[in-house]
Write a structure and sequence with these properties.
The protein is α+β, with helices and mostly antiparallel strands and 193 residues long. The chain has 6 helices and 6 strands, in the order αααβββββαβαα. Strand 3 (93-103) and strand 4 (108-119) form a beta hairpin.
């Protein structure tokens, strides 16, 4: 069962500040200390997550799957799935990535897509799509979701709950733009490798 937005906000408040009082201070806030302690505890599960990503590589042979858990930057374990596609270095190309995140704060996950436009190796644009998955990526996204549920027992966070505004400062996100999605998964969903 998916926790309510109120329950998730209560959990997020333990790890993210409601003001910028510690922004320019050298010492960490109480929320920072709890967040760092939780990550220290959850790092024990990093090898389990790595095995999960290896399993995805086997079950999604037309894709590359990579572990994406950039330390303390995100409150989640992440996987990025890159469907194989031909590349043309002479004209802009659109590349899609399926991103799956398992929150370390609550037993919830999300799967969404990121569209990036490149000219050669230069990134021109990146945009996260938290809503409906494009048709050509639905099988990949469904596989990632199903495997997270099976392996970790997490439930999918519905989009309407994920988009609930929260009065918290999450990395560079500030109210009123901050949502539960940012607090539970990543503050920069379009910023991927």
């Amino acid at each position: 069962m998916t926790p309510s937005a109120e329950d998730l906000l209560a959990v997020a408040r333990l790890y993210w500040g409601a003001d910028e009082a510690y922004l320019f201070r050298q010492d960490p806030s109480p929320e920072d200390l709890r967040y760092e302690a939780l990550w220290a505890e959850k790092n024990v599960e990093r090898s389990r997550w790595g095995s999960f990503v290896k399993t995805l590589r086997k079950v999604l042979p037309g894709c590359d799957a990579w572990d994406y858990a950039p330390g303390l930057a995100n409150p989640s374990f992440g996987v990025l799935i890159y469907p194989h596609q031909e590349r043309d270095m002479m004209r802009p190309q659109t590349r899609w990535t399926v991103a799956g995140y398992l929150s370390i704060l609550a037993p919830v996950y999300t799967v969404h897509c990121v569209r990036r436009v490149f000219l050669g190796k230069h990134l021109l644009e990146a945009k996260a799509f938290l809503g409906p998955i494009p048709l050509e990526l639905q099988d990949v996204a469904s596989t990632v979701a199903r495997r997270i549920e099976e392996e970790f027992g997490a439930t999918s966070l519905p989009l309407d709950v994920a988009q609930t505004p929260v009065p918290l400062y999450v990395n560079f996100m500030k109210p009123p733009a901050t949502t539960l999605f940012h607090a539970l998964f990543t503050s920069e969903p379009e910023n991927i490798l």
